[in-house]
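Supplementary Note 2. Why include the ligand at all?

Several targets in our set were suspected to adopt different conformations when bound, so apo predictions alone were not considered sufficient. For every target with a known small-molecule partner we therefore ran a joint prediction. The input for 5-O-phosphono-beta-D-ribofuranosylamine is given below.
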Amino acid sequence: MVKKKTCVFISGQGSNLKNLIYRSRDNSFPIKISLVVSNNRKAKGINYAKKYKIPFILINTKNRNYEFKILKELKKFQIEFICLAGYMKIISNKIVSKFEKKIINIHPSLLPKFKGLNTFERALKNKEKKTGCTVHYVNKKLDDGSIILKKMFYLKLKDDEVTLKQKTQKLEYRAYPEAIVKIFRNI
Ligand code: GRF
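The joint prediction is reproduced in token form.
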């Protein structure tokens, strides 16, 4: 199997990056992580790129034309597929239009509910019975592209933002790899 050369975009902890790196070491997993992009030089996730000797680039989104720098690097590393994993910046049309249906994101709610930030706080406030995570394609709008898969769990009375985050992330580590397998199985 020829693995798709993939870039993971991060801004923080990088636990989904770590999980994808582990999964992609499996011969039958359809992607290889060839590049990591971070818009935050202090992102802990960069350490996983270093540890597993994956090239990474730091970008400063305050620079005009920073997207051209990203596009240049994506080209240099022959990137065919992009996974957003806690990347806290909207991907502009400059990149989306060049990678149509080739960028996916994982979001910590059952989309279309709770797009954007503070999903756990909002789920609790709204007295949701269930929550979870969604893997979806990225389009020009925030958390809006077509859905690849969702995973859910039921809230318990004692759940708070901390437990919801823990439970959601645990599901994410299954959902993201599963979604990737699903995409490439269908191609
Ligand atoms: C994840 O919960 C994901 O749903 C959201 O950002 C978080 C990133 O966590 N988009 P990590 O950096 O992968 O640990």
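DSSP finds six helices and seven strands in the chain. Strands lie at 4-10, 31-38, 56-58, 81-84, 103-107, 130-137, 147-154. Comparable summaries for the other entries are listed in the accompanying table.
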